[in-house]
User: Fold Oleosin from Brassica carinata.
Amino acid sequence: MASDIQHRPVYGSTTVPRSTNINNPVASFLRQLQSKARNHSGQLFGLLAFFISGGILLLLTGITVTAFVLGFIAFLPIIIISSPIWIPLFLLVTGFLSLAGMVFGTAALISWTYRYFKGMHPVGSDQVDYARSRIFDTAAHVKDYAGGYFHGKQKDAAPGA
Assistant:
Protein backbone atom coordinates (compact mmCIF):
# COMPACT_ATOMS: atom_id res chain seq x y z
CA MET A 1 0.00 0.00 0.00
CA ALA A 2 2.92 2.28 0.53
CA SER A 3 3.77 1.93 -3.16
CA ASP A 4 0.30 3.19 -4.13
CA ILE A 5 0.95 6.61 -2.53
CA GLN A 6 1.70 9.22 -5.16
CA HIS A 7 4.06 12.06 -4.36
CA ARG A 8 2.75 15.41 -5.48
CA PRO A 9 5.21 18.13 -6.47
CA VAL A 10 5.68 21.09 -4.20
CA TYR A 11 4.26 24.31 -5.67
CA GLY A 12 6.98 26.07 -7.69
CA SER A 13 9.18 22.98 -7.85
CA THR A 14 10.81 22.03 -11.13
CA THR A 15 11.14 18.35 -10.31
CA VAL A 16 8.89 15.84 -11.94
CA PRO A 17 7.23 13.44 -9.49
CA ARG A 18 8.51 9.91 -9.69
CA SER A 19 6.00 7.32 -10.44
CA THR A 20 6.31 3.58 -10.40
CA ASN A 21 4.01 3.41 -13.41
CA ILE A 22 5.88 4.54 -16.59
CA ASN A 23 2.64 4.77 -18.55
CA ASN A 24 1.20 7.35 -16.13
CA PRO A 25 -0.12 10.17 -18.40
CA VAL A 26 0.41 12.90 -15.79
CA ALA A 27 4.06 11.99 -15.28
CA SER A 28 4.59 11.78 -19.04
CA PHE A 29 2.98 15.19 -19.56
CA LEU A 30 5.06 16.76 -16.78
CA ARG A 31 8.28 15.28 -18.24
CA GLN A 32 7.47 16.74 -21.68
CA LEU A 33 6.57 20.08 -20.16
CA GLN A 34 9.80 20.20 -18.18
CA SER A 35 11.94 19.26 -21.18
CA LYS A 36 10.48 22.10 -23.26
CA ALA A 37 10.60 24.71 -20.52
CA ARG A 38 13.59 27.05 -20.65
CA ASN A 39 15.65 28.21 -17.76
CA HIS A 40 15.51 32.02 -17.94
CA SER A 41 17.41 32.67 -14.72
CA GLY A 42 20.77 32.91 -16.53
CA GLN A 43 19.39 35.36 -19.08
CA LEU A 44 17.76 37.39 -16.34
CA PHE A 45 21.01 37.54 -14.37
CA GLY A 46 22.91 38.59 -17.51
CA LEU A 47 20.39 41.32 -18.26
CA LEU A 48 20.56 42.55 -14.68
CA ALA A 49 24.38 42.62 -14.79
CA PHE A 50 24.23 44.47 -18.12
CA PHE A 51 21.98 47.19 -16.74
CA ILE A 52 23.96 47.57 -13.52
CA SER A 53 27.35 47.80 -15.28
CA GLY A 54 25.86 50.08 -17.97
CA GLY A 55 24.49 52.39 -15.28
CA ILE A 56 27.83 52.49 -13.49
CA LEU A 57 29.69 53.27 -16.72
CA LEU A 58 27.16 55.95 -17.62
CA LEU A 59 27.61 57.51 -14.18
CA LEU A 60 31.42 57.45 -14.52
CA THR A 61 31.17 59.00 -18.00
CA GLY A 62 29.00 61.80 -16.64
CA ILE A 63 31.44 62.47 -13.81
CA THR A 64 34.38 62.53 -16.25
CA VAL A 65 32.69 64.93 -18.67
CA THR A 66 31.59 67.19 -15.81
CA ALA A 67 35.10 67.28 -14.35
CA PHE A 68 36.58 68.07 -17.77
CA VAL A 69 34.15 70.93 -18.40
CA LEU A 70 34.65 72.41 -14.93
CA GLY A 71 38.44 72.10 -15.26
CA PHE A 72 38.35 73.73 -18.68
CA ILE A 73 36.25 76.60 -17.32
CA ALA A 74 38.58 77.02 -14.33
CA PHE A 75 41.78 76.99 -16.37
CA LEU A 76 40.46 78.97 -19.36
CA PRO A 77 41.85 82.32 -18.13
CA ILE A 78 45.29 80.77 -17.64
CA ILE A 79 45.12 79.17 -21.08
CA ILE A 80 44.13 82.48 -22.71
CA ILE A 81 46.79 84.48 -20.88
CA SER A 82 49.54 82.00 -21.71
CA SER A 83 48.41 81.39 -25.32
CA PRO A 84 51.37 83.35 -26.77
CA ILE A 85 53.54 80.58 -25.29
CA TRP A 86 51.28 77.61 -26.21
CA ILE A 87 50.84 78.34 -29.93
CA PRO A 88 54.55 78.53 -30.84
CA LEU A 89 55.27 75.60 -28.53
CA PHE A 90 52.55 73.56 -30.26
CA LEU A 91 53.97 74.44 -33.68
CA LEU A 92 57.51 73.54 -32.58
CA VAL A 93 56.47 70.18 -31.13
CA THR A 94 54.31 69.35 -34.16
CA GLY A 95 57.09 70.28 -36.57
CA PHE A 96 59.68 68.28 -34.62
CA LEU A 97 57.48 65.17 -34.45
CA SER A 98 56.65 65.41 -38.16
CA LEU A 99 60.30 65.78 -39.10
CA ALA A 100 61.33 62.92 -36.81
CA GLY A 101 58.65 60.67 -38.33
CA MET A 102 59.73 61.48 -41.87
CA VAL A 103 63.41 60.86 -41.05
CA PHE A 104 62.56 57.54 -39.39
CA GLY A 105 60.42 56.49 -42.37
CA THR A 106 63.12 57.44 -44.85
CA ALA A 107 65.77 55.55 -42.87
CA ALA A 108 63.53 52.46 -42.70
CA LEU A 109 62.88 52.64 -46.46
CA ILE A 110 66.58 53.01 -47.30
CA SER A 111 67.49 50.15 -44.95
CA TRP A 112 64.83 47.83 -46.46
CA THR A 113 65.88 48.70 -50.01
CA TYR A 114 69.55 48.08 -49.21
CA ARG A 115 68.80 44.69 -47.65
CA TYR A 116 66.51 43.77 -50.57
CA PHE A 117 69.12 44.50 -53.25
CA LYS A 118 71.88 42.79 -51.23
CA GLY A 119 69.71 39.61 -51.20
CA MET A 120 69.08 39.51 -47.45
CA HIS A 121 65.31 38.92 -47.97
CA PRO A 122 63.74 41.52 -45.67
CA VAL A 123 60.12 41.20 -44.58
CA GLY A 124 57.81 41.58 -47.57
CA SER A 125 60.42 40.81 -50.23
CA ASP A 126 58.51 37.70 -51.36
CA GLN A 127 55.46 39.85 -52.09
CA VAL A 128 57.58 42.34 -54.04
CA ASP A 129 59.13 39.51 -56.08
CA TYR A 130 55.69 38.04 -56.80
CA ALA A 131 54.32 41.43 -57.89
CA ARG A 132 57.38 42.01 -60.10
CA SER A 133 56.95 38.64 -61.81
CA ARG A 134 53.23 39.27 -62.36
CA ILE A 135 53.95 42.67 -63.91
CA PHE A 136 56.66 41.15 -66.13
CA ASP A 137 54.35 38.32 -67.28
CA THR A 138 51.51 40.75 -68.00
CA ALA A 139 53.82 43.02 -69.96
CA ALA A 140 55.08 40.04 -71.99
CA HIS A 141 51.51 38.94 -72.79
CA VAL A 142 50.53 42.47 -73.81
CA LYS A 143 53.64 42.74 -75.98
CA ASP A 144 52.87 39.42 -77.71
CA TYR A 145 49.23 40.34 -78.21
CA ALA A 146 49.99 43.85 -79.43
CA GLY A 147 52.78 42.63 -81.72
CA GLY A 148 50.46 40.15 -83.40
CA TYR A 149 47.67 42.68 -83.58
CA PHE A 150 49.77 45.39 -85.20
CA HIS A 151 51.46 42.99 -87.63
CA GLY A 152 48.03 41.75 -88.71
CA LYS A 153 46.81 45.31 -89.26
CA GLN A 154 49.88 46.22 -91.28
CA LYS A 155 49.28 43.28 -93.57
CA ASP A 156 45.65 44.26 -93.99
CA ALA A 157 46.51 47.93 -94.55
CA ALA A 158 49.12 47.21 -97.19
CA PRO A 159 48.25 43.95 -98.95
CA GLY A 160 50.73 44.53 -101.75
CA ALA A 161 53.69 45.21 -99.49
User: Anything to note?
Assistant: The chain has four helices and no strands.
